[in-house]
Design goal:
The protein is an alpha/beta fold. It has a single domain, classed as Dna-directed Rna Polymerases I, Ii, And Iii 27 Kd Polypeptide, Chain: A, domain 1, CATH 3.40.1340. Helices cover about 35% and strands about 25% of the residues. The chain contains 5 helices and 7 strands, in the order αββββαββαβαα. The strands form 2 sheets. A 5-stranded mixed beta sheet has the order 1-2-3-5-7. The chain has a two-stranded parallel sheet with strand order 4-6. It is globular.
Length: about 140
């Protein structure tokens, strides 16, 4: 029996995104101009092998609002990751979590932000990537 996400059973950072979301992640990134291969290392861990650039190790989450405690827990449990990506378009992260990630040289992105960051070769530029501001 599958558990439904409710207030009594919230999604935490250790809960992988559902299979359809993970398949969307893999197929979309498989078509990205800078990605030559997507290697699934687990339901939340992916190695993105980039064309002509270093690979990027990503941790996927589906936390609605990823806060500093979530960020610290993920970064402690997965010290080798380069980026944390909150997959759903409805999800976000707090400014405190983003600031701590930047201080640690880790990218903290919404999915669309990751798509832009993958074009950045420099590690600091990758982690600090922000999409262009709309007028």
């Amino acid at each position: 029996m599958a558990f439904k996400t409710t207030m009594a059973n919230p999604v935490d950072w250790q809960t992988p995104p559902d299979a359809n979301s993970r398949e969307f992640f893999k197929s979309t990134l498989g078509q990205h101009a800078r990605v030559r291969e997507v290697v699934e290392e687990g339901p939340q861990r992916y190695l993105l092998k980039r064309r002509g650039m270093d690979s990027v190790r990503v941790f996927l989450t589906n936390v609605y609002t990823l806060g500093i405690a979530d960020y610290l827990a993920i970064s402690q449990a997965h010290q080798d990751i380069d980026a944390i990506v909150t997959l759903s378009g409805y999800n976000t992260y707090t400014p405190e979590a983003k600031a701590q990630a930047l201080q640690n040289g880790t990218g903290l992105f919404k999915f669309k932000e990751l798509m832009g960051a993958l074009h950045k070769e420099d590690e600091d530029e990758f982690a600090a990537y922000e999409p262009p501001k709309k007028n």
